[in-house]
Every structure is written in structure tokens, then in C-alpha cells.
Specification:
158 residues; 9 strands; 3 helices; PepSY domain-containing protein
Amino acid sequence: MKMTKKMWLIPASALLLASAAGAAQADNQPLERLDDVLTHAETYGFTHFEEIETKSRGRIEVEGWLDDEWFAETRFSLESGETLREKRERLITGAWGMSADEVRQAFEVAKTEGMTKFEEIEIDESGMIEIEGRDGDGQELEISLRQGSDQVTEIDRD
């Protein structure tokens, strides 16, 4: 094989591998599964949610607070509720984020905008919530709203 072909083959292979790995990581769940996710997370001990993200093969990753001192990042099986990975750290900032009811309220807003499947919900320290998912046609949908509000501040349909 000529040297120029070899020079292109390695980066092209790496790019294909990276895109395949990214596609394997992306997943979504029907909005009807949200209560299952929250039930598993609350059973684990979460009181405040900063991020909930769907992973491949029916796995969910939750980041948030167990109480005013302990922050956790946990991955669990949506089907069994089994904890697959966990990381905890003691922080002095105190708990913040969304309650389970606020997560449900945010997804009700997303549902009224046509979202049928969710990929991720996260909140920043200023109280802005961003929800990523898909509508009934499979199109990507990103919705932003302020914590405690049922008014969409931004919507992006791809």
C-alpha cells in the first residue's frame, strides 16, 4: 500500500470508530418511563437532581444530591434498578437542583411541545433547565425553561 493511502487510512478509521462509539452511546426512553427512572433514583436516595441522562442498553445515569452534603453520580439499569456504577463525594456547597416533582413538571412542558422520548435533562446553577429528546417523528427536540416555570424560553427542532 502506498504511503499516502496509509496516511489517510488511519485517521479515517479513527473517525469511523469514534462516530460509531458516539452513536452507540446515544439512546432515549419514552416519556412514560420517567416515573420508573425517578423511582429508582429516589430509592437510591436522590433528593435533588442536576442531570438525568439515558445511556445505551437501558441504562440511566443520574447526578445529584443525596442530602445537603453528599453529591452522587450513579448509573443503574432501568429494568432491574441494579446499581451499575456509583461515585459519591462530600461537598460543602449544599444541595441544589430539581426535586422529582420539578423534573416531572419540566417533562410535562416538553410533552406539550411534542416530545415523546427523552435523552437528557439538566439544570444549571442559575435555574435554567435544558431537556433533550425526540418528537413523535423522531426529530431532535431541545427545550429550555426556567426552574418552577411552565413557559418555554427556547426551543430548537432539528
